[in-house]
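Budget justification note: compute hours in this period were largely spent on complex prediction jobs such as the one shown. Inputs:
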Amino acid sequence: MARQAKNMVKYIIKRIIIMFPMLLLALIVTWILSHMMLVDPILNKIGFDNPELLELERIRTGYYDPWFVKLGIYLKNFFTGDWGESYAIYPGKSVLAFIGEVFPKTIELMIIPTLVAPFIAVKLGATAAKNKDKKKDSIIRFVAIIGAGFPVFWFATVVQISFGLYIPLFTNGQLQLPVLLTNSPGSSLPGPIDGFSTGFRIIDSIIYNDQAFLWDTILHLILPTISMVFISLSGLTRLTRATMLEVLDQDYIRTARAKGVEEDAVINKHALRNTLLPSSDKIIGGILGALLGSLFVEMSFNYQGFGYYFTQAIFQGDYYVINGFAVFSIIITLLGTLIADVAYTIIDPRITYK
Amino acid sequence: MTNQDIKIEEIDYKDFSASGKEKWVRLLKFYFLPAWRNPEFTAYENEIEKIKSKRRSFRRLLTPLTIVGFFMILFIVILAVYGPWLTDIPLQEVTMPYVPPDGVAFQEPSPEHPLGTTLYGYDVYARIIWGARTSIGMAFIPVTISMMGGIIVGTISAYAGGAVDYTIMRFVDLMFVFPMFILTLILIPLIGRELMTILIIFGILGIPGNIRFMRTMVLLVKEMVFVRAAKTGGALKFKVMFTHIVPNAISPLILAFFSGAAGTVIGLAGLAFLGLGDPTAATWGVDIDWGRLRLLTGIWASITPGIFIGITAAGFMLLGDGFRDALDPRFHK
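Corresponding output:
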């Protein structure tokens, strides 16, 4: 047991060591990509009317330097924490501070789907596999296919319409949920501007004891959460169903049934544990993928989170923001795969690393 | 049960064949009597049917959900193929550079416009039909590109082993680190917004996943006995790879093929929704984005194209699931 733990620690350390060159390579590739983008932040700042000042600024900030100097300065800036400033979305705001403000909102959006959806999905997948080719199976499979096939933004639009239009129509205007469509403009931050703020709106509102803000935030989060839960349910249900069908063919299930174990215990104890192994890999990987893939939901609901600002930056050509956000996503993906691999080792005791 | 496979040579065809005058009578009957079948051939066919029970392998494909998927795709293909018969608004009138002179944006469904109009007065019904052509016609191109690349590179990597394998896998891991969709978002404004460019980019970005997938399968198949037999028999490496290993390793990729087609349809629609699609092609995603401008009044303009995207993608996925279930070697019912 101790030897296995020591092996696992060695494996984790080896993975972390490999992460750094990969991060470096990824940084170089993002740098190449953003340099292909032909935007000039200095031109934006100064404008066209002062050519001498433009030239001076350019020489000062290194526009005419050879490429390895630029690359070196870029890498040095990256590791010392200076990720540049945004000039098109929020002129003058540093990118790191921007990420710190914007990313917690996406985490808030993603927390409920990623915590709740796996439970429901595993239960549904197990039921579908148990009654294979019967009516329940067909219904669950059909609903899962609908969730997987219909695009997320369409579903978000339908949810918006049905909750925004039809429920007030249905209740004759009695049930007005006024915060359904966009972020309400009156949602200013609780507490002072320079005060301590974690960026999470819910935690902030608890810290500063602001009930109205908390309620406002939760109401705004309901609809996107419903869309996200439905979509992530479908993928996980299909995967669980397929894995469970494989598991139910195995010999140990037959042994358990022959021993006289009740059917419920066969499914819930023996089969389910083995089903969760491949699914857990995808679930944990999917958590971090969902953080980055919330683009569509945020665009549909105008929810100003990570993906929303990322697409805005790509449209407006905000060079530093695109770079910073892309590097941030890469870091998260790397950490996510590492955590998923380690967790997979913990969950499945048969996997050992030499 | 008794042994029921009857060899063809054991049948005494002399009972059924004719000679002499009978032969000419049968020939005349064959030409002049409609739907007359020669008893000799009928007996032959019966024996073959008894041996080769082809109904069983086809029957496995026809589960209820697969039939539903098949009809979904058939519906969309009919819309795409019989487009000009179903609507008399040509393609040029529903895409960007043309603005209908008397169009009223976001009308209700009326006898003229069976599903209402969308922004600038384009007819939603016509856009759906022309969009069907774009989606179905273009859905398979990126999947083909990524599958070809994945199969070839994956097989070479897994078969060669050693240093080649290691470098290719590190390269694939590097590609995996980037979130693929964000890479498309960054690349498309750089390179160009035409439809073919977008599809080729999708295809190229899908190659690393297929490489990894194919490589796992080839690693499994490589250890089987028939590969060793082929190598001892002196087959060239190329021949061993592509005629022995690939056909056996390819079965999970059929599901991936259809899922990839579904993913392409949704991905194209997603790009169009964000505004990065091809402005001169009638894709469905753009409609959903336009429809959001009048969310509370013109709902049909935004919901209906989405329903069709969903039908296409869900149909592909159901077909893929059906093929995978039918070809699964562990299916022992």
